[in-house]
Write a structure and sequence with these properties.
It is a single chain. The chain starts with a helix and ends in a 6-residue tail after the last helix. Among the domains are: about 40 residues; about 180 residues, no CATH class. α1 packs across α2 and α6 packs antiparallel against α7. It is elongated and about 125 Å long. It is about 65% helix and about 15% strand. By secondary structure, it is of the alpha+beta class. The longest helix is centred in the last third of the chain and has 53 residues. A hairpin with a 5-residue loop joins β2 and β3. Strands 2-3-5-1-4 form a 5-stranded mixed β-sheet.
């Protein structure tokens, strides 16, 4: 019993010491954290920047340790990333097909919708009929991405809707990646330009210029991607087509044209053309055979005449 009691007392003492040690460490960590928050922010920033500057000095190409060869981040802080990621970047595209008895009125209504959402018509193709009235039209519209849904709803009500479809692509991550790579690439080019000014030998100048040309080409490509994404995310694209539907009066006139003298004349002319085409086709098919028969008939005729003369000539008696 005495040995068991001694072991239990020893385990309890060890556990109490462990709890006391953990409490002390937690208190020290909390105190040091508060002191850094209250007055040590600048000092911590300086200490964080010092290793980066030291790494820059140790790198042979003079680039920041926050860069890498692919141009990906690393120089951008969490605050910059959060600012860009707060707003979603969407590429929106729509397709609307309408029908209307009056295409020109439908075009007017479509223009009103475009003006309401502060958009613009970037392409317009219109076909007209015999009377000069529009029979169909095709338009390409650019509207603010934030008002894409409003524009689609307005266009669908501009005339009789046939089909409507939309496609929205989230490119927030891609936009963020390209923006970061552009900033990093620009900083890299600035550092290489400094190295070019400091280079003394021809070999160093050639090597630095090669690096500078490569990174400038990469930067130009990234800037084109950045401009394209900025345009596509700022303005949505909608393709709209309008076709003319026949009015009841037009249908009645068409029905009347199918009957009467004009309809009979048209049917007779069509039949005449069909017969003429059939005869011409038959003649064309038989012509080669007729030519061959004509060539064979002439020698045959001469032979027949010669045989006939021999039969009719008198026999001379001795």
């Amino acid at each position: 019993m005495t040995h068991a009691a001694t072991g239990l007392r020893r385990r309890l003492t060890t556990a109490a010491l462990a709890v006391l040690l953990v409490t002390t460490v937690a208190a020290c960590s909390s105190g040091s954290g508060e002191s850094r928050d209250s007055g040590g922010g600048d000092a911590a920033s300086s200490e964080a920047e010092a290793p980066a500057r030291g790494a820059d000095a140790d790198r042979p190409d003079g680039l920041s340790a926050l860069d890498d060869s692919t141009g990906r981040n690393v120089a951008t802080g969490p605050a910059d990333v959060a600012d860009v990621a707060d707003e979603r970047k969407l590429i929106s595209q729509g397709n609307v097909q309408l029908r209307s008895e009056d295409v020109e009125q439908a075009l007017f209504d479509v223009q009103q919708v475009v003006d309401t959402v502060a958009g613009e018509v970037v392409q317009k193709d219109t076909a007209t009929g015999e009377a000069g009235a529009a029979t169909r039209a095709r338009l390409v519209l650019r509207v603010p991405s934030a008002r894409f849904d409003e524009a689609m709803a307005g266009l669908e009500d501009a005339a009789d809707l046939v089909t409507s479809s939309s496609n929205v692509q989230d490119v927030t991550t891609k936009v963020l990646d390209v923006d970061i790579r552009v900033r990093v690439q620009r900083r890299s080019i600035q550092r290489i330009e400094v190295l070019l000014d400091q280079a003394e030998s021809i070999r160093d100048i050639v090597a630095v210029e090669r690096q500078l040309s490569t990174r400038q080409a990469d930067l130009a490509s990234l800037e084109r991607q950045q401009a394209y994404l900025a345009d596509q995310t700022a303005q949505a694209t909608i393709t709209l087509s309008i076709e003319r539907t026949k009015a009841p009066a037009d249908k009645a006139e068409e029905k009347e044209d199918r009957e009467g003298f004009v309809a009979g004349l048209d049917s007779g002319w069509t039949g005449f053309k069909n017969v003429t085409v059939a005869l011409a086709t038959a003649l064309g098919a038989a012509l080669p055979f007729l030519l061959v028969l004509a060539l064979l008939a002439w020698p045959a005729r001469l032979l027949v005449r010669r045989l006939a003369r021999r039969r009719t000539s008198p026999v001379v008696e001795a």
